[in-house]
Amino acid sequence: MSGFSSEERATPFTLEYRVFLKNEKGQYISPFHDIPIYADKDVLHMVVEVPRWSNAKMEIATKDPLNPIKQDVKKGKLRYVANLFPYKGYIWNYGAIPQTWEDPGHSDKHTGCCGDNDPIDVCEIGSKVCARGEIIRVKVLGILAMIDEGETDWKVIAINVDDPDAANYNDINDVKRLKPGYLEATVDWFRRYKVPDGKPENEFAFNAEFKDKAFAIDIIKSTHDYWKALVTKKTDGKGISCMNTTVSESPFKCDPDAARAIVDALPPPCESACALPSDVDKWFHHQKN
Which of 11, 100, 106, 279 lies at 20 to 30 Å from 145 by C-alpha? Predict the structure, then answer.
């Protein structure tokens, strides 16, 4: 067990919906800044934003106090990814590694493009369908260098250490061997997922080839360094909220009561009675309207 828990506020698939994270004491925290990057030696934490097979584009709200998870919005409308044939929604558990940041002021030497201003993304390939807001421990296997509208957007490939087959996966070649076609599908998905919205295909560095675990770890460490500069105000966050409760050297650190006040000002927690149809049903409704 990670010791972390989540709390939903307002109704899912609405503009007001938020998922806040709590520590083992039940105190509200930032999933961006307060969850340690490392869960153990060679094991990282991952914040699950989007469960596998779902369509609602949920993400850590980097500019909101405490950085809750919320659904992305474009032109006033909630975002859903299309069911890009032959796939159903996201084809992995999708999320981010906490305490990392792809600096938009830094031009990446591998891609020639600046960072996308978000925590580094993770595609978790294990057998379990995780829950939104779940904090899992992952083993890094490799990385893909995507270029999204001129910005560097790394995609880490990882597996939940609690997966029954985790011991068999130690580097990117194990994914190629044990899940044939999965990495090719991952490139295809990321290349085309914005096309139904009228946008061009995404591009990739390294001719869309996955780099190995050692390379991935180096990239993650560099984004952790950029995050350190961000949270200690050594670099301009350009609107990012660095409010946190644990980073002692950060001028943005607050006490638990201040964090609670942020959450208490929002709509009440979502109860089971507010359960709605699946997000793919919501997406079809959105398309028709």
Answer: 279
Q: State what percent of residues in the chain have pLDDT above 70.
A: 93
Could you give the C-alpha distances from 12 to 7, 76, 151, 208, 239, in angstroms and in order?
12, 16, 30, 35, 26
Q: Are 78 and 56 in contact (CB under 8 A)?
A: yes
Q: What does the pLDDT look like over 51-86, one tens digit per residue?
A: 999 999 999 999 999 999 999 999 999 999 999 999
Dump pLDDT digits (tens) for 32-48. 999 999 999 999 999 99
For the beta carbon of residue 207, count every other beta carbon within 10 angstroms.
6
- The rounded distance, in Å, linking the Cα atoms of 67 and 101 is 13
Strands (E), 185-288: 203-204
Three-state DSSP class for 209? coil
Please give the DSSP secondary-structure letter assigned to residue 274.
G
Evaluate the CA torsion angle 4, 140, 163, 190 in order and state its sign. positive
CA 27/CA 103 separation, integer angstroms: 29
pLDDT digits (tens, 9 = 90+) for 167-178: 999 999 999 999
The CA-atom distances, in angstroms, between 186 and each of 55, 121, 162, 220 are 16, 13, 22, 20
Task: Say whether pLDDT at 202 is over 90.
Answer: yes
